[in-house]
Design goal:
By secondary structure, this protein is an alpha/beta fold. The chain has helices at residues 13-17, 42-57, 75-84, 116-123, 126-137, 177-185, 198-203, 214-219, 245-250, 253-287, 297-306, 308-318, 320-330, and strands at 30-35, 63-67, 89-93, 140-150, 152-155, 170-173, 189-192, 209-212, 228-230, 236-244, 291-293. A six-stranded mixed β-sheet has the order 7-6-8-5-9-11. Strand 1 (30-35), helix 2 (42-57) and strand 2 form a beta-alpha-beta unit. The longest helix is centred in the last third of the chain and has 35 residues, at 253-287.
């Protein structure tokens, strides 16, 4: 059994308390993963499947320890922990890595995706391979891509029926420049904020609204502090599972294969489950009292037109090749 000794550059008191400040693989064959999704979210349950399958494939010689629900901090902190080697990996919304790997923003083209099938075909193909290479250059190994889903806007001010209804709404978004620029382009006032702060900010009126897949809106109970729900579907979002590249490559070949095979099973399960739960989550939100207003084709077209400049800016920022490749693959 090959082990890798890594000395972390820093370790927070929380990490030390959890035993995560010690070298990651020294004397123990446990891979530690932190995440900010709740225990009942499909991605966290998929990680439990990964945990089970990894133990089965290695006869218990290599195991995974999971810390979901922000036990190790928010998504940004989890990225830093993986980067430093304090933990093996994390499962996060892909936007949280876009500052480190700007090319990932090519997956955030506004109103570009028509279906989850298109999204999976894109990330499982050559575009995904290219992005995996960019992640590797930044010190990460991509283990798999799950569904976070189409993102939809909620707010506590008014139903969203036209482009004008977005005007000046303070909407929380992930720390992704393309996301922020898109909402500025349609007239909103976007605010970048970690998910662990959103509920309180909505409750206190610091924000008017936020945008997330139905599943996140439901599991985070954001309906308790929001009244209006729409189906904007402005972005399709992935959950990426990334590992510290040096630590992953320090595993022997059989261990690496076991990790990837176990993750393949987990990702396949999550994608199917997420699709089933997406529609159910929307119905749950409506049953809990949210007022649902669908976006008309006319309004969606107007929103796409209003945000076209964002696509042009992104070509200049990260290169036309990757942006045009995504648009070509999506048939846009």
């Amino acid at each position: 059994m090959t082990t890798t000794t890594r000395t972390t550059r820093y370790a927070t008191p929380l990490l030390l308390a959890l035993g995560l400040g010690a070298p990651l693989m020294a004397g123990a064959d446990t891979l530690r993963f932190g995440g900010n999704f709740t225990d009942d979210h499909s991605s966290s349950r998929a990680m439990e499947i990964f945990q089970e399958r990894l133990a089965e494939r290695t006869d218990g010689d290599l195991t995974a320890q999971l810390f979901p629900n922000m036990q190790l901090g928010g998504a940004g902190e989890n990225v830093d922990q993986v980067s430093s080697g304090a933990i093996m990996g994390t499962w996060i919304g892909i936007s949280y890595l876009s500052r480190t790997v700007p090319e990932l923003e090519a997956l955030s083209l506004p109103f570009a995706f028509d279906s989850r099938e298109d999204a999976f075909a894109l990330i499982d193909g050559e575009v995904g391979e290219l992005l995996d290479e960019k992640l590797a250059e930044a010190g990460f190994t991509a283990l798999g891509y799950m569904e976070l889903g189409f993102r939809h806007v909620t707010n506590s001010v008014r139903p969203l029926e036209s482009v004008a209804d977005f005007q000046d709404l303070k909407i929380r978004l992930q720390p992704n420049q393309t996301h922020l620029d898109t909402f500025r382009a349609i007239g909103a006032n976007p605010v970048s904020m970690d998910i662990n702060e959103v509920y309180g900010a909505l409750q206190q009126g610091v924000l008017d609204g936020q945008e997330n897949p139905y599943s996140i809106i439901s599991t985070k109970r954001l309906d308790e502090v929001q009244e209006y729900l729409s189906d904007t579907g402005h972005f399709y979002d992935y959950i990426v599972v990334v590992a510290n590249r040096d630590t992953f490559e320090g595993l022997d070949e059989a261990e690496q294969q076991a990790v990837m095979a176990a993750m393949d099973e987990a990702v396949a399960w999550q994608r199917e489950t997420a699709a089933e739960e997406d529609a159910a989550a929307r119905e749950t939100l409506i049953e809990r009292g949210m007022q649902f207003t669908p976006i008309s084709d006319e309004t969606r077209s107007a929103l796409r037109d209003a945000s076209q400049g964002v696509v042009d800016d992104l070509r200049e920022k990260i290169g036309a090749e990757i942006v045009d490749r995504v648009l070509e693959e999506l048939g846009s």
